[in-house]
Design a protein that fits this description.
The protein is built from eight helices and 25 strands. It has about 450 residues and is of the alpha+beta class. Strands 7, 8, 9, 11, 12, 13, 15 and 16 form an eight-stranded antiparallel sheet that branches. A six-stranded mixed sheet has the order 2-3-1-4-5-6, with helices on both faces. A six-stranded antiparallel barrel has the order 17-23-20-19-24-25. A hairpin with a 6-residue loop joins strand 24 and strand 25. It starts with 10 loop residues before the first helix and ends in a 21-residue tail after the last strand.
Length: about 450
């Protein structure tokens, strides 16, 4: 056991949780890295390891193929690639982890969006022999769009380039320059060999020129904040509770999960999109009355006034309520096989609210090679990243995605069969605001 997994100095550090995702091009070794993390941190059960060893022997491999710890689908094992997002849960003495092992093939970039949407850190793998490739840039762009605050560049297969420091330095410089232009706030580069275990959990004796942390050491110590109470308070209503029983003849409560911030009894709130105001008279959490509740608690809020409130409405403090609008400008990652075209009718799902909408414009599509914008593409196809202008049938209370990942995100859905077409992020695309700003033209709009 390495020093990175010894007992922590304080209990607070041991109880923190880090959500992170792995990404990279095909055969960069993501699944092997995840398997190595699980194996070397003693997070694999004996029967799991025995099953992997048996499967490896049946395939003619002498050493256990640690990638099999995450590649659970039969097609993944047969093809040697990752297709679906594999979630794994493990812990060390310092921190608990939820890991999303995402696919590397361009066909499954949409799955990387799913895995990284809630991540606080992304590990992007690069094959030391190939360097930064198009899919590496694509995953860096997705991480930047999703506002993932920490990115680790794991330069893998260093054993196949004789652990050469110049190879690592050149790749790290190229990736860091590219990701910094996207606005990624923190980038940490680590040279590793997932197959041999170099710098994954244990420091490598083969790369004494590297003085930084191992992958696990960085995962254990990177600062993460779960203080959603500091964000703008938002409460999407999921369900209206009206028991109308002898015990509760006049009870009217609004149930849901607090998306961000905190709500207090006595606080004045605004109901959106109607704009009506009232005062919080009670908050019920787990059957008990409380004076304050905060994200991500699931609660029932009661108000002083009988206001027409239904699923999809949003409660926010009166002094800090978001503006409502029917015009949505956003960046989207297109995840469906069918294209998204100008003039297309869609459903827009934001928190618990789903409204009819129409795609009025697609001003630009991102070119990943040089981060330029290809103007007026007309449509977006699978795995494209682009700017869209959407007009909704009803007003929505969206925050900018930069301010709130929970209430600044949305989905575009095909109304015919419910297929998810695109994942959207309201407001500017990157932290550096490189995206082209659309010019609105209301002529011909249906709503």
């Amino acid at each position: 056991m390495s020093t990175s997994t010894e007992q922590p100095a304080d209990l607070t550090a041991a109880t923190t949780l880090l959500r992170f995702a792995t990404a990279g091009s095909v055969d960069d070794g993501k699944s092997t890295l995840v398997g190595r993390l699980l194996h070397d941190s003693k997070s694999v059960l004996a029967d799991q390891l025995e099953a992997v060893e048996h499967a490896s022997r049946s395939r003619g491999q002498e050493a256990p193929d640690l990638a099999l710890l995450t590649d659970g689908l039969r097609a993944e094992r047969e093809q040697g690639i990752t297709i679906d997002v594999a979630y794994r849960y493990f812990a060390t003495a310092r921190r608990r982890f939820i890991l999303a092992d995402t696919p590397g093939h361009v066909q499954y970039t949409r799955n990387m969006v799913t895995g990284a949407s809630t991540a606080e850190l992304a590990v992007v793998l690069v094959d030391a022999r190939n360097g930064v490739v198009e899919q590496t840039r694509r995953h860096a762009a997705v991480a930047a769009l999703l506002r993932v605050p920490h990115v680790v560049l794991a330069v893998n297969k260093m054993d196949l380039v004789d652990y050469a420091e110049p190879v690592f330095a050149a790749i790290a410089e190229e990736f860091t320059t590219y990701a910094s232009e996207l606005g990624v706030p923190e980038i940490t580069a680590v040279p590793i060999s997932a197959l041999a275990g170099d710098n994954v959990v244990e420091p490598s004796a083969n790369m004494d020129w590297y003085g930084g942390p191992t992958v696990l050491e960085h995962l254990e110590t990177v600062p993460v904040s779960h203080d959603l109470t500091a964000c703008h308070a938002r409460f999407p209503v999921q369900y209206v509770i009206r028991p109308q029983t002898a015990e509760h003849p006049d009870y009217r409560g609004y149930a849901g999960q607090i998306a961000a911030g905190a709500f207090r009894v006595g606080e004045e709130v605004t109901v959106l999109p109607s704009g009506k105001t009232s005062t919080v008279t009670a908050i019920d959490a787990l059957g008990e009355a409380v004076d304050i509740a905060w994200a991500p608690q699931s609660v029932t809020i009661r108000l002083a006034d009988d206001i027409d409130i239904s699923r999809g409405d949003l409660l926010a403090p009166t002094g800090d309520a978001p503006a409502t609008s029917q015009d949505v400008e956003a960046t989207v990652c297109h995840v469906a096989d069918r294209p998204l075209a100008v003039g297309q009718r869609v459903l827009l799902k934001h928190t618990t609210r789903t409204v009819k909408a129409i795609v009025k414009d697609i001003p630009s599509r991102l070119t990943l090679d040089d981060l330029s914008q290809h103007p007026d593409p007309g449509q977006l196809v699978a795995n494209d990243i682009g700017r869209v202008v959407v007009r909704t049938a009803e007003p929505l209370a969206l925050d900018a995605y930069a301010d709130s990942r929970r209430t600044g995100s949305f989905l575009l859905i095909d109304p015919a069969d419910g297929t998810t077409l695109a994942a959207g992020m309201a407001g500017e695309s990157f932290a550096t605001a490189k995206a082209v700003v659309a010019t609105e033209d209301e002529e011909g709009w249906d709503f």
